[in-house]
Amino acid sequence: MKNLDSVFAAYLIAWGVFFAYYLTVARRTSSLREDIERLRNLLNRSK
Amino acid sequence: MKKHALASAVVLLLLGAAAYGALYVAPTERTMGTIQRIFYIHVPSAWTGLTAFFICFVANLFYVFRRQPYWDWLAVSAAEVGLAFTTVVLITGPVWAHPVWGIWWTWDARLTSTFVLWLLYVSYLLLRTLVEEPDRRALFSALFGIFAFIDVPLVFGSIRWWRTQHPQPVIMGGAGSGLEPTMRWVLLFSWLAMLSLMALLLRARYDVEAMRGELDSLQRDAEAA
Fold first, then answer.
1. Each residue of B102-154: pLDDT tens digit?
2. Which residue, among A6, A15, A37, would best test binding to B if mutated, counting the most B CBs under 10 Å from its CB?
3. What pairs with residue B33 in β-bridges?
4. Ranges of each domain in chain B
5. How far is CA B185 from the centre of its chain?
6. What is the pTM of this model?
7. Displacement of CA B192 from its chain's centroid (Å)
8. Min Cα separation B186/chain A (Å)
9. If you placed Cys at B44, which of A37, B95, B143, B190 could pair as Cys (CB 3.0 to 4.6 Å)?
């Protein structure tokens, strides 16, 4: 099975890129959720 | 949350099945051997990236004519997701090319137009960071996004219109093109898996934009209070 390592490397890199991208989106989501929650609490307290 | 976890599990299952099909079900190609199996991740990623850029283009057109913010949210989400898929194309291509061509990269029409496409959508995302006012940012980036899409038909046609080092198309390539039936099924299934991944990423990324919109409106309320 010549070049099998290159095939596995290609698949691992591809999945790595997608996973890393998904992590950045998840991080942005949780950070925005915290900001929204904080602002909502601030607005509720000022009412 | 439960729905999202279920969707993620389905996508993972499809990706796993696609990888199994590519590595164990598809027959070994006669001239290239095992290295040809990269084709089952490279080509579906390319098609999915172009699909995402098409969604971005349509959303940009809708924004220009309707000026509703959710079209801008969809456009930027699709551009970013398309960029992730095109990045995979630009990495897996050279991994295949090195043992087959003996070089990692050459400036032929397909490779160059794909790299230009990647640069155009990086510029689209950078442009958005330069304009503060949300409506102006959305309009400028929509107009730039419509312009950037011009490169998509060039990428598609490059291996049909010009002689390139890149292999000729195996689907919609005219007379003499085509794939062995098992290879074709594995390719189409891999594309389906990639499309499901695109839908999952697009949904998650769109939620980020929607939350940003909500945060902006809360900030305006806080300033007014």
1. 999 999 999 999 999 999 999 999 999 999 898 999 999 999 999 999 999 99
2. A6
3. B29
4. 37-162+177-214
5. 21
6. 0.94
7. 13
8. 15
9. B190
